[in-house]
């Protein structure tokens, strides 16, 4: 361990080892889910290639000069917006969403890479000393930086990724030290949106509640009115967003609110996932022995429902091990974000952490039946080159910050 | 940074970790068994293996009914696989089953639950669908009952309903034998509904139904049906029934009714087409019953063959009830009474029996009771007990009224008459074999009782030969085989009264008389144009007998050339050139009875006008045919007036005008 101690100073094994184990589990699970599948048999080899490729990307990013992130933040954000617009025009439609851009045989999802640019841009904006997080104008800009790609992604439409963007934008703003009023300004539209799902009456009641709170904060009329208008607008924007959603996505939201309404339709995947995990029991059925998996009861299991494979074939112990690894990773990243004295770098880490966590929470939540079916992959485990590469690049950024954590600039 | 925020985020992460742990514990440890059961239920499906219904064959193994293993294809519209692929499913089905795509689309979109997309697809078509895998689509064996000969033997075979359950005929009678035992296939299915493996241990094979062999001979049946239909059409009849039996065993060789039906589409036919009248309709047998009555009189030694009976010249009253004969005779021997079917003669002879004796014999012949053939729908009949007899019951019974029998009962009783006196139980099932060829049931000759002696049987056979050779059944005579038989003509009793011009014309015949091999009953209901059994049913019998003899050389191998003096229908024969006539024999027996009313043919003075009044049209023609006289007859029935008085001299060129009106003897009789 004498080598480790020296190396640990530059390279955080508490982050790296869980991730490597998760990628390995992912490879095993993808192998099990696709070995008997007629149309997905090559997926294990592809995932193996992307694992190596993303590891190389991670190493490259790890060794980048520490200033690279700050310098590249705005250009990367700019490219992000351009590709997000481009995909709406020249993109390829997969599963009802125009989310892929193809360069010959290689394709990528701009929304995945947009995560990097948006996190960097938000961190730069809020990490700059001259910006006051409790200034409504500065909050507004921060919100716009996050919301703009969200709107573009919603137009693909990709609900899951949009939710991820909303979450990390809000958490980055929160982490940057927002006041109670600022938090109210940021969160109230979200509450309005949520209440509007339950109908007009709850929407009106929420808006009335918003007005009362605005009076209590005793801000000037202009600011109060602006915040109120923002809230009302949010309610209508959500209506619009809901109406442009694909029917199957609308159905998913409705099914989440009332799961019993459609047991054989949208609820099918959720039920099958639970059956797979539940039938795995304490010890699991063993590698390649999960009949729910091998008999292909869960469509496209190697993507969003990869966690079922773990649950069925490796049981309660395996499932617990996976969430334990994730939790170690999250707490370690949080610890790092707390330690780092540099606002910009801290915000990047918290953004990446939030991104991983939201993916993790929604994906595993829907696998075990406590979250709606929203198409989000499980980081490091689900099949998919774009997602894995982006996650490893983000992890590389975090590790780069770790390497340079003692530099105070 | 802000440690409060860090604590909050730590709490959020930790809380979520705890929530996931709890949820995982609940579903993987606590509710583990529930999900194991759910998984088993959806992975291990059992599919019913429908047993194939047995085949019905004739006595020679010709297939009369079998089940074609068609497949019906269903879709479970509740399943995602159905709703998300309506377009694909519709176009695949449209391609294979050549119906427009919109047809299937419409079915799936508007249906709920399980919907049948294709009813009874052939196995060949269904195989084409195998490559198309969709979890919501499943198939079910759906057998189609096929009757390869169409309407042939429809009343024997019966039909099945849409659930393949026998509703009538053999299909119903042998339901338990024909239906097999459904099996079960234990399958492991994948998420798409495709079968991954078959679990042999928990699978039970279907046991197919047994094969029923009938005593029916397909060729006989075909001949019977064709000839019966011909007669049915020729006489524009209401219904027709024909039965062919082996009198020595009770085997039914053919049985047909008209109108008939197509068992494949039985639902399109009303009950009047599907009714098996041979066993379900009772009728008054009329003169055919005289064979039975005569055999009883012979058995009891109450009559002698050559005993002469006064037949009252065709009109006789019993307690104000008038009994008439179609052909009027003054006197007839017992044998002639039978051959010429004299009602008066029989009425007189029957009185020699005690009511109890008569009843006992009729019952012993099985009349008025079900024969227990086994086919569903067989009825009993009516046979009055002696204490219910009226003063005229016995005379009526003597020529076949006041008794209701089915055609099958009558032919069964006739079989007893000619097989030496044994009443046999008729049967139609030769044997039942399972699919391995093991015998499960075998139909055998079953003697119920001995009714008359061998001697009486031989005598009545001879009488019936006479009835065909000399009497009312001449139309049934064959060129090379002697036939015995008895005609019958009865008025139909409908809605409480005897119908005018609505008759049951029947004939029961058998051959060869030396050793009867085959007996055949023909019953034509409500024939038009002609109505006497000898004119309607006997020729049909002849047609059938000739064709059977032609088709089956083993039937009566010893055939002979029969020389007959009277080759033409005797009713129209030139009487002067035919001195050996039935009437002449009789008239010479007792000359004393010849009075001035004597109008029979030999006494006609060729120079004077005979009295034609009350004569039947037919008799009148016969009498006039010996005179050089032009005549014209108006109407039908009996002569009510003649333009030249009886006794007047006949001059050349005289034209006689005769007016006839129909009279109904039985009607007259009943009016009292």
Description:
- In chain A, a hairpin with a 2-residue loop joins strand 1 (92-94) and strand 2 (97-103).
- Chain A has a 3-stranded antiparallel beta sheet.
- Chain A contains 16 helices and 3 strands.
- With 409 residues, chain A is mostly helical.
- Chain A has helices at residues 2-10, 13-34, 43-62, 68-90, 110-127, 136-154, 159-175, 180-196, 200-217, 221-244, 247-257, 267-280, 291-294, 306-339, 343-367, 385-403; strands at residues 92-94, 97-103, 106-108.
- In chain A, helix 2 runs antiparallel to helix 14, helix 4 packs antiparallel against helix 5 (110-127) and helix 12 (267-280) crosses helix 14.
- Helices cover 72% and strands 3% of the residues of chain A.
- Chain A has one domain (2-403).
- Chain B has 4 domains: 2-45; 46-214, Alpha-Beta Complex (Penicillin-binding protein 2a (Domain 2)); 239-258 and 277-544, Beta-lactamase; 566-671, Trypsin Inhibitor V, Chain A, CATH 3.30.10.
- Chain B is built from 23 helices and 28 strands.
- In chain B, the strands form 9 sheets. A 6-stranded mixed beta sheet of chain B has the order 7-3-2-10-20-21, with no helix packed on it. In chain B, strands 12-11-25-24-23 form a 5-stranded antiparallel beta sheet, sandwiched between helices.
- At the A-B interface, helix 12, helix 14 and helix 15 of A face helix 1 and helix 2 of B.
